[in-house]
């Protein structure tokens, strides 16, 4: 069933922007930059082209377009979000972390290239994200001020108050005893998933020249969408099939991770998905093109039904 | 013996700038940023405050000052270079990499915090470098254009054509069969050490508004200085005492790494140190304050005698 909102073919739009991202990734990966050693490059390209929904770069394009910018102009920034996301997956999969050997239906990076190379490939993708975002946005004639703001947001979402902090909590390294399990699982979702998703939308809006009020609404939408996405992911971890979700099923459960399903039960998690999705739609109403942003929420919810 | 060049007390200057850096690092580390989990922050702070020469941030300040800028203004960028350097050391020391348990005279990060946390602390420092550099430079009223250029240089030096690429070669992951050992060791030194040192000088000069010709000379000096530094380091690995160099002696040798000493012998390495130092001084002559930049070369050479 195609999602048509007020005559707008959202599924078609999504497919088109996803193919833009895939094409841009292919262009990037097909020519190894000068001075980059070939095996390291292979390891980076392996994970970057291993598929996935390309959610973050698509959201970056969406936000830029909703605020009136030609989407292709922010592609260097959009790809940077995918690079950061990919780097975090490579490192999360390492034996000393979640020790996963399957990701997006393929052997994980360290299974193919070894632990040390996977570590380096993650580091290299992390740094390349910043390098290529700045270089590409400068080439596309954006002002240094806008570039600085968007790249700072990306860095913040990546670092200790974002993904890295979330992973440290998710691994059980942090003393969160003062928080109940319901607050803990929400805090992990916020920093591990929400912040980067919010930042990808914010980055697109920044480059389109959105003002501070608008950016605040974009972030609100992004944080709610990101949490909803994490709840949906936790539900899929127990209800999905391996060929559908492309990674080991029941893994979170087996590792005793604090997921929404573990804390609230399957039915409880579905209710939280309803709540966070509703919250995201309230924020969407404050954005330009609310139809598009609402359709994205619906799309995400349908994954779990 | 104090190094006085034309009446300029270089040792005093160096000590002063090093203490600036230490003070700024202490300020940074003493207040955990909002939303950063405490154990992750402890792991980051542990390695960031574990001592070291603070060569890269000092070079960043030096270049800024030589080109007429008040040094403290570029401190956020200077600290970013130290964060990147520290992140690379934490990851290099991991068991899957060089498996080192001693660094700067203290147990390495993973020995104290475990492998997974050390991995995360490195990632977090990497991202924090970009975040705090942009945030701090914006707060110091630099233009977005200059910030973008300096941060792009930092990212390039960190990524696959810089440190990460160098480490991949150093680990023996890359097929460098077409290059003789002398070219290989130089290529590793260039990307693993030279590029970040050059970038730290370039970053300071960029923020001071140096023009493209001047930046090219700064990079030339930095690359030569970086190579000389690596040669000196290799020499110290075999001639130094553990209490002097703060890490395991003879480790490179024991691991069969392609060092300047392994390839050229101790005497040969000393000759290459003379050559690269001479090269660095030739570049120094083209910079403002050549006395200061030459004194830095001499300082570095004295480490090995």
TrEMBL record, chains A, B:
Annotated EC: 2.5.1.10
Spell out the InterPro entries in the cross-references.
Isoprenoid_synthase_dom_sf, Polyprenyl_synt, Polyprenyl_synt_CS, Prenyl_diphosphate_synthase
Asked if Ribosomal protein is a keyword of the record, the answer is no
Q: Which GO terms describe its cellular component?
A: cytoplasm
Keyword check for Transcription: no
Q: GO MF annotations for this entry?
A: (2E,6E)-farnesyl diphosphate synthase activity; metal ion binding
Q: Where are the annotated coiled coils located?
A: none
Q: Which cofactor does it need?
A: Mg(2+)
GO biological processes: terpenoid biosynthetic process
Arranged from A to Z, the UniProt key words for this protein are: Isoprene biosynthesis, Magnesium, Metal-binding, Transferase
- Top-rank lineage group of the source organism: Bacteria
Known NCBIfam families for this protein?
Answer: FPPsyn (NF045485)
Family from the record: Belongs to the FPP/GGPP synthase family.
Recorded protein name is Geranyltranstransferase
Q: Source organism lineage?
A: Bacteria, Thermotogati, Synergistota, Synergistia, Synergistales
